[in-house]
Design a protein that fits this description.
The complex is a heterodimer of chains A (about 100) and B (about 150). Chain A is of the alpha/beta class. Chain A has a single domain, classed as Vaccinia Virus protein VP39 (Rossmann fold, 3-Layer(aba) Sandwich). Helix content of chain A is about 30%, strand content about 25%. Chain A is built from four helices and five strands. In chain A, strand 3, helix 3 and strand 4 form a beta-alpha-beta unit. Chain B has one domain. In chain B, about 40% of the residues lie in helices and about 35% in strands. Chain B is built from five helices and five strands, in the order αβββαβααβα. In chain B, strands 1, 2, 3, 4 and 5 form a five-stranded antiparallel sheet that branches. Chain B starts with a helix and ends with a helix. The chains are: A alpha/beta (about 100), B alpha+beta (about 150). At the A-B interface, strand 1, helix 1, helix 4 and strand 5 of A face helix 1, strand 1, helix 2, strand 4 and helix 3 of B. Strand 1 of chain A pairs antiparallel with strand 4 of chain B.
Chain lengths: ~100, ~150
């Protein structure tokens, strides 16, 4: 299996051109297996990445690079449930990642 | 979706931002490459989420018109998923977009599989090293939340 997703890094460039995540608390909605998360999380202070698909979150946790441990939290939770348990003004940036 | 965007505004700091990455409302393309040459370009027959995208765009327009968010920046980019064969790409697509229908029972699935079979034949005919890619066009928008005065005090 030799699937390569966005090896050109077009998505990463577009995202990082749009926002500076340095020192920010970031919420990523629809993180899937963490494919995009790895590409910006190194700049953020803390990333909370959520997805309703358990299999994807398990995969994301398994492949979390060691240098990002403690900085990225993956949660298997629906957005509605996450909101219900979250305080206002908790995040500097929210990313909707292909999550229409 | 409108409710989700309202909730997002609540979660953001007053000077925060929402980044929305979505595919454009157009069918992705299946492309066969041999080196830098494109051998085949064909609309992806499994594209079936146009209505979902339209609803998402409508929700975004609605919250902007209601003054919850303002657009600060927008750009577009090409998003390619490369595979060494068409069945490989098809398997990935089935995994990410599985709707529970059995391919044997669903005539649409049979037709999609037929296109992917044809794409694979063309890829193989293109010679060793030929690849296939799913080419999506996407956009990224940066939105700033607008808060009422009473929400800031």
């Amino acid at each position: 299996m030799t699937i390569r997703v966005d090896p050109e890094n077009n998505e990463t460039r577009a995202l990082l051109d749009m926002a500076d995540f340095s020192g920010q608390r970031v919420l990523e909605i629809g993180c899937g297996n963490g494919r995009l998360t790895w590409r910006y999380a190194g700049k953020a202070e803390l990333v909370t990445a959520i997805d309703p698909k358990a299999e994807a979150i398990t995969r994301a946790r398994e492949t979390l690079p060691s240098e990002l441990k403690g900085r990225v939290e993956f949660r298997h939770i629906a957005f509605e449930d996450f909101c219900a348990s979250s305080e206002p003004s908790s995040f500097d940036s929210v990313i909707f990642s292909w999550s229409f | 979706m409108v409710h989700a965007l309202q909730e997002t505004q609540r979660l953001l700091t007053f000077n925060g931002c929402l980044i929305d990455i979505q595919p454009l409302i157009e069918a992705p393309l299946i492309e066969v490459y041999q080196g830098n040459s494109i051998v085949l370009v064909e609309p992806d027959p499994s594209y079936d989420y146009e209505e979902d995208l339209r609803q998402a765009e409508a929700a975004l327009t609605q919250v902007i018109q209601r003054g919850l968010f303002g657009i600060e920046a927008r750009s577009e980019f090409d998003f390619l998923t490369h595979g060494s064969s068409a069945p490989e790409l098809r398997a990935l697509w089935e995994k990410t977009g599985a709707d529970g229908n059995s391919p044997e029972e669903d005539p649409t699935e049979q037709s999609i599989n037929e296109v992917y079979r044809r794409v694979e034949e063309i890829r193989q005919a293109a010679g060793q090293g030929a690849e296939v890619a799913l080419h999506e066009r996407a956009r990224v928008i940066r939105l700033a939340p607008n808060f009422r005065k009473e929400e800031l005090t």
